[in-house]
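Reviewers asked in the last cycle whether our approach scales beyond single polypeptides. To address this, we selected a multi-component target totalling 936 residues and predicted its structure end to end. The input consisted of the following lines:
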Amino acid sequence: MTDDWAGSRDLHVEVAARGRRRAGLERALRDAIRAGRLHAGERLPSTRALSRDLGVARGTVADAYGQLAAEGYLTTSQGAPTRVASTPAARQGRLAPAARPNEPRFDLRPGLPDVSSFPRRAWLRALRSALATAPDSALGISDPRGRPELRQALATYLGRARGVLADPAAIVVCTGYIQALGLVARALKTTGRPVIAMEDPCLELHRNIVESAGIEVLPLPVDEGGARPEVPDGAGAVVLTPAHQYPLGGTLAPERRTALVRWARETGGVLVEDDYDGEFRYDRQPVGALQGLDPARVVYAGTASKALVPGLRLAWLVLPADLIEPVVDVKRLADYHSAVLDQLVLADLIGSGGFDRHVRRMRNRYRARRDRLLAMLADRAPYGRPLGVAAGLHLVLELPDGAPSEAELVERGARRSVALGSLAAHWHGSGPRREGLVIGYGRPPEHAFGASLAALSDVVAVAEDRQP
Amino acid sequence: MTDDWAGSRDLHVEVAARGRRRAGLERALRDAIRAGRLHAGERLPSTRALSRDLGVARGTVADAYGQLAAEGYLTTSQGAPTRVASTPAARQGRLAPAARPNEPRFDLRPGLPDVSSFPRRAWLRALRSALATAPDSALGISDPRGRPELRQALATYLGRARGVLADPAAIVVCTGYIQALGLVARALKTTGRPVIAMEDPCLELHRNIVESAGIEVLPLPVDEGGARPEVPDGAGAVVLTPAHQYPLGGTLAPERRTALVRWARETGGVLVEDDYDGEFRYDRQPVGALQGLDPARVVYAGTASKALVPGLRLAWLVLPADLIEPVVDVKRLADYHSAVLDQLVLADLIGSGGFDRHVRRMRNRYRARRDRLLAMLADRAPYGRPLGVAAGLHLVLELPDGAPSEAELVERGARRSVALGSLAAHWHGSGPRREGLVIGYGRPPEHAFGASLAALSDVVAVAEDRQP
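The resulting structure, written as structure tokens, was:
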């Protein structure tokens, strides 16, 4: 058994300075185990290491360990490390196995990509490459905007792949789009824009984030051509999903893009472009970023959550010059900057072409899933109307009058362990509310997509009895 | 040259639907380069891949590439990929090399550990191990509190090494202590505590974070025994650095611990324990966490910024039961949860013993640096009084009347490219302000510590002329 001191482990025991050392050590260990601070199975330092740490004789520690083993607090055996025994107190503080009573067998809720496709090996290779070249200073405190390696890679990538005009100095790497939206909201408030229009429907969580920044949210109606460009009076900014409206799926029409940019120029307003799934476009009609039309009036927001996985919490803002400092100021107080290693890895992956390869591979997969889903829906749910099918990882099955209601289908899905989204929680204006399922076909692992589709098919076929 | 379609890269070009395809493609590429969206040196897709992406004949793409090469926008050569030429417009969007005119040669400011000691190989190994076992679901959206693997590892580690009684369910992993403090501040406000006492002196950035949550900050005086336990009227919480007061370095005296816990119990107040460098204690007198005295009244905050590096932005809160939900609510709106891969790696490192090994190795190194620094100061700056030397990565050289002023020494350091901290910006109360240098001896790389010490020696020896 190796017993290198620096190779041992820390153990915090407060041995009273007065009285017998052995008795004091025993009492301190017993108290720590009884109080639940030392957990069952936890390995203790070797007698040699602990005696050096505490400045007591090694025999004293060995005697104390022996006494506590005799009392049942510790387990010792020749040649193996001493460990905390599994008494009831020592079992406190173990995380109970996660109860997952409601985990659906088939999860077709929107919002997640196929996380099983995360390129683990490529990520590991890119970390090795990044760690081999990163300067030590990259591990210290960085620019609040994020690592220059990633901002440079993103500027080049976004220009090439999304038509974004991005100066690396104008990019702020964020801890996911949730943080990005919150930072922009606070910066808009400090620059005199306390009212923001958001698409109706849109994600409830996003409205909550903006409102928690102390901002009033007004609804902006949406139809098949994306957001209608009638910005409500008083709004100083508009949050949009131009490439693929969330959740309805429309693409912002060219004349609406022009009209919104004109509104921003005339009023000093700001357009916030949430390009959450811009990488996944399935037809040949390119839809470039709105930002390219006027980089001085559009905040562009992109994310790795769909192209890779949301667990990375990596997103980026491309900011107009006059919003860089206000956003950096709130970023500094939020978390100073985002974690650096993932940034270095993503920069490496973009530079090596690995990111493009992954996106293009996944685009082919998701396109094939969409095609199968559309074929199934045409066959089994002819009462519904699929919306937003040209892009992204989800579609809406609109449910017109006479079709089953979204609540009915969601409930029927739940009974068969098929989880589905619906439009309900997305509305926030007083206008008419359409009914529809929101189906996230990106989410199941590739091998389980067929079974998920079959299960969904049974759910939506409910209405066959009622349709002629 | 391989030309696998999925292996190519995305290029966003908007080719007008009307008119000649080749002329349209040429115009779109020329516009993208002129506008600065395509950067110098950027590789274009192969003619085959782009022709498939756009749905045009391969010859059309080849002709367009050829024409633009002739015009000087692209560079082509047999067998090599086509790239964007280095025209002035295409050089836009490159990050200017970071100007570092004021980078000191010897950086002894506090706040950073020796980032060159980051165990890159161990980290890479632990990521490999974590990626080999992590379930796919770990890469999706997690519990806002963070990955259960890390919360379990931290609960066990903090109990063993810091005397913290930690239930994994009460731990919230944060994007650095900056975020942790901001989340706690907002949660304290929503639970009816709009006034918080903070040590005087303390870090100005920390006061700014608390104030930006809409909280009033009151000063709590500090002396050699740490914070004085006279909590100002109206304060609902107190932020403390009990193990090693920042910056003065005192250890919170036992009777003050008891008095502060009594205050919290009697008033329903909360103690926030910032254990920023608790791993680095150089004598045998253990200083356990204040939290162990009353886990129901103390918020414990730890961080990987000193034990590893701040670039990780990893910190953790151990919360009283009634603050878990309020903190989780603000965490969800801040960034939903912190990035998962670093969490999985740290959990692996703690479980394997690699984290303890690193901490113990660094503790030995930092202790040796402290000893050398103290010897030098005793020799060259006998006018000063070193404070807070029992722990941590910094000490204060107090400057009594008659000694050179902190401004004088900082200025003299700057002239010799030696960066030093001072107490000045840390004060926020109206009480007497002491003068002192704050010397961060943890910061230089190991190989450069001797030279840094020699340079500092020349700076502090200024006063020799003036001292008898």
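The mean pLDDT of chain A is 92. We regard this as preliminary and will revisit it once experimental data from Aim 1 are available.
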